[in-house]
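Question (not urgent): is this output format expected?
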Amino acid sequence: MGAAERAAKESGEWSGVTPDAARRLVSAAVQAFAERGYHATTTRDIAGRAGMSPAALYIHYKTKEELLYRISGTGHEEALRIMGAAAEAQGSATDRLRDAVRTFARWHAEHHTTARVIQYELQALSAEHYAEIAGLRRRTDRLLRQIIEDGAASGEFRVDDVPGTTLAVLSLCVDVARWFSADGARTPDEVGALYADLVLRMVGAS
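Got this back:
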């Protein structure tokens, strides 16, 4: 994927952010945080990537932390939506777990830059913002845990430790953001399919 294609994809990922200047700042912040880390990134870095002056940034976001909060909130709400759709779908626990892992892992591959930021820069959020994002993470965890509990109860899965297995599955999917490269050998769809198969083996799906 070339630079122009990446830029177009990034713009589309944040299409819900308006106006255009605010969207450019969010996209620039994601790239800067992913490359340099939150603490090493300055507001000047972000504004420069967005083609704006540092003063213009403060029209849309009061602080650098507010930008991180916006990015984290959007990413975690999408993760919750993905997991909720799978958990509430019709079908067996096996079908629901396969769909949950496939879509969750695929999202972390397809949006790996954003995912790296929302998963690995959480500690930089203010206490209030961290508590809100942590709540979204707990809701996502509960949805996956319910699928695994349903499978264990029905005899589809052989799982002795549901909380531990839930944590392992989430960790497996989240880690995709750390290593995935758009120029690598696997596509996001292939990663999703592979991880779904691995997790079903992990839980001893019949």
